[in-house]
Amino acid sequence: MRWENLSINDRSTEEPALPIPMAGAVARTFDTPEFRGMTFYEVRAKSIINRVPGASRVPFEWTVNPYRGCSHACRYCFARNTHKYLDLDAGRDFDTRVVVKVNAGELLRKELASPRWRGEQIAMGTNVDCYQRAEGRYRLMPEIIAALRDFANPFSILTKGTLILRDLDLLKQAAEVTGVGVSMSIGFVDEALWRSVEPGTPSPRRRLDAIRQLSDAGFAVGVLMAPILPGITDTPESIDETVRAIASAGAASLVPLGLHLRPGAREWYLAWLARERPDLLPRYRELYGDGSYLGAGYQRELTARVRLAARRYGLHAGGMNTARQVLTSPQEARVLGSPRNGGRQQPEQLTLL
Ligand code: SF4
């Protein structure tokens, strides 16, 4: 950890300290309904462009993550376990105790200017959401996008945050000079389920509206249709309704992915399932056993269902408009997210959820 020798030296008495101290860090709370119950740990990171470990099966090599923890609080979030490196828990702490790298923009500019940096693609939203609620206050993304624009460095963003629309002008400016991939994550459109399973996110309707606006602005918006929840949103009806909504919002492509249950996410999601749908626990035991992933047979069936629905609503490979296609593997997902205005093809961050 880059701030391992740091310690908190400026915080009020009510605010919980981080178990792992960070020098120069400031623990802060805000007395607004939006941030009630949350603590932000403002830190000055020592580096900001991260290399993805070689063993990771993801189609990108470099990432920028200005936050750790995510107030979007999705029960199934794969990133939960990363909070344990801070000696915080992967459940409520992940949702409410968020590390903010306040110098992310200035540091990125410095690293992009380094002769060692070779201008490779940078993926954002690959660990936690860079357009989570904190971004409304800290405004780290405008500085980050401006730096990437100024260095004409290609990048992609995957988010559930409609706050991305705030930065639309900057994104357009960046897309004039480099490849900019924009993807929205929408696994289902059922509003009651959304409130229960993704309680801190903008509603699926608002995300669909954001796709429309991004699409109208000239971006070929990709959708990560994930996670599809076994026994809940994997029915033909749910898939049909979701694909129809995504297609009519103007998305250019989508990637369907079933739920992964890695450690951290697994415990938190299964606790939710036990409360909300105990009848499904035997089915999950059957599907996942002690592992994190769904079997190949189930995945194939899921993909077939999505393909069927996608064809019905005009999202299909090799159709009239080649930009409107359904992508079904991380490899295919590499072509997701290129802007219509001539950006080059992008690797994407679609294997993580
Ligand atoms: S928005 Fe993404 S990073 Fe944030 S909690 Fe949900 S799944 Fe995790």
TrEMBL record:
Q: Which residues form the signal peptide?
A: none
* PANTHER family xref list: SLR0285 PROTEIN (PTHR43432)
- Name of the protein: Radical SAM protein
Has keyword Signal? no
Chain intervals with Polar residues compositional bias? 343-353
**For the region Disordered, what residue ranges are annotated?**
324-353
Presence of keyword Metal-binding: yes
Q: Which UniProt keywords apply?
A: Iron, Iron-sulfur, Metal-binding
Q: Which organism is it from?
A: Planosporangium flavigriseum
A single Gene Ontology MF term assigned here is:
metal ion binding
Looking up InterPro entries in the UniProt record yields: Elp3/MiaA/NifB-like_rSAM, MJ0683-like, rSAM, rSAM_sf
Which residue range or ranges hold the Radical SAM core domain? 56-305
Taxonomy, superkingdom: Bacteria
